[in-house]
Write a structure and sequence with these properties.
single chain; 418 residues; 9-stranded mixed sheet; 7-stranded parallel sheet; 10 helices; disordered N terminus; disordered C terminus
Length: 418
């Protein structure tokens, strides 16, 4: 009798060694190459989802009993992409896209609006955009009370109220992740200092800085050393505009030494591509100098989507063409921005976390990647999104790789953060 029992146990363990025991799942993603920087996974793995959660990441998960099986062979399975600099408030910024149209088709499950609303207009933004969006929408709150209605609006230092900004951030802390300064055309540090004060009042939330312009330009060395805190974000980091100081010395082709010191201090450098806020003349020498961005983002708005930027996958493709490795690119749109916005429950495929997943392919061919100046790089590889899963539901399936094909059109998140 004992011998028979030992034989049964031996057979069970032998089978379990290479195959996770069968159980019912909502979705099993089979045969994909999982890249999950937070959990240090870069290997062929399967992913199982039940309800809205990741429940298994392992080799050879048995799909028997799964409601849907996704064939991801030859594809990359990553955490849902986080675009931490976008604009999605068409009620105020006329023409800007509603988030649903430019997220799921690009693997983006979380988008962070960068200061389109301020303390006065955020409730409207929540009601009109956040509450009706399928992707998770978070926000940087503009230090200007009315937000980014227009460039003149953002020159009004009288509407930059640290206390009211902090109060709104604390009231809606599940949605507001930081404070934004943008487009100020002047030699004063008032917008930056009031934004940092608001961040401190709100419990130490970060500040994102988009320098506007000044003649002569304000010193970014002074910005980094005297005004910003570790964890604050310098967006449009590869911009080269005459009214702004840039990070690469155009005479030497090297990243300025104080920029490297700022990174050591903890200043975050974000792409924020936009329309005219990215130039190869800054990015290429910076990359050659070993200076890669902490995060890759789009500055998605109604002018950039049809220009050189297009979408986050195009921007990711450009950085891979310039020399970033595939894992580093994925890290710059998943784990890193999750840390930067202080929502580390996002940006990974950790078991138990909400199931936000992107399935990407890399097309091979001849591609032209240009910037707004007309400079073009030739690339051989380009990202494409095959599938996006948001809160455990397939919300985008380019080629019907799920069996059966069932696309959910309305996501109900189980988390407190939508």
């Amino acid at each position: 009798m004992m011998q028979k029992l030992f034989l049964i146990i031996f057979i069970w363990f032998s089978a379990a060694k290479d195959t996770v025991l069968c159980q019912e799942y909502n979705i099993v993603i089979k045969g994909g190459h999982v890249i999950d920087p937070k959990n240090k996974i870069d290997a062929l793995m399967d992913v199982a989802i039940t309800d809205s959660r990741i429940v298994q990441v392992a080799a050879n998960i048995d799909p028997k009993g799964a409601r849907q099986v996704v064939n991801a062979k030859g594809m990359y399975v990553t955490p849902g992409i986080i675009d931490m600099h976008s604009h999605n408030f068409p009620e105020v910024r006329k023409g800007d896209p509603f988030p649903d149209g430019f997220t799921f088709r690009n693997g983006v499950t979380t988008t962070v609006d960068a200061g389109s609303s301020g303390w006065r207009t955020f409730p409207m933004f929540k009601e009109e955009t956040i509450d009706h969006s399928e992707p998770r929408v978070l926000a940087w709150l503009n230090i200007v009370g009315d937000g980014f209605k227009n460039f003149m609006n953002e020159q009004n230092t009288g509407d930059m109220d640290s206390k009211l900004t902090a109060n709104m951030a604390k009231r809606y802390r599940e949605y507001i992740i930081g404070v934004k300064v943008a487009h100020f055309e002047g030699p004063e540090w008032t917008p930056v200092d009031r934004a940092v004060e608001a961040g401190n009042r709100a419990g130490g939330i970060p500040v994102m800085i988009d320098f506007g312009g000044s003649n002569p330009p304000l010193s970014i060395q002074e910005l980094f050393t005297k005004h910003l805190r570790p964890g604050d974000i310098f967006t449009h980091c590869f911009g080269q505009l005459g009214s702004r100081e840039f990070i690469v010395d155009t005479l030497t082709g090297k990243v300025k030494p104080f920029v490297l010191e700022a990174r050591k201090k903890g200043i975050i450098f974000d792409v924020g591509y936009g329309g005219i806020s990215f130039a190869y003349s800054q990015a290429i020498p910076a990359m050659k100098d070993g200076f890669f961005p902490n995060s890759i983002s789009t500055d998605m708005n109604h002018t950039s989507t049809n220009g050189a930027m297009k979408d986050i996958l195009s921007v990711m493709s450009k950085f891979m063409t310039m020399g970033m490795t595939l894992p580093n690119v994925i890290q710059a749109v998943t784990m890193n921005p999750a840390r930067q916005i202080k929502h580390e429950e996002l940006g990974s495929l950790t078991v138990g976390s909400e199931a936000d997943v992107a399935i990407l392919t890399i097309r091979e061919g001849n591609f032209g990647f240009y910037d707004y100046t007309g400079y073009k790089m030739e690339g051989k590889k380009k990202f494409e999104c095959e599938m996006t899963i948001r809160a455990g539901k397939i919300v985008y399936d380019l080629n019907g790789i799920a069996n059966p094909v069932i696309v959910t059109r309305r996501v109900q998140s189980s988390s407190t953060i939508r």
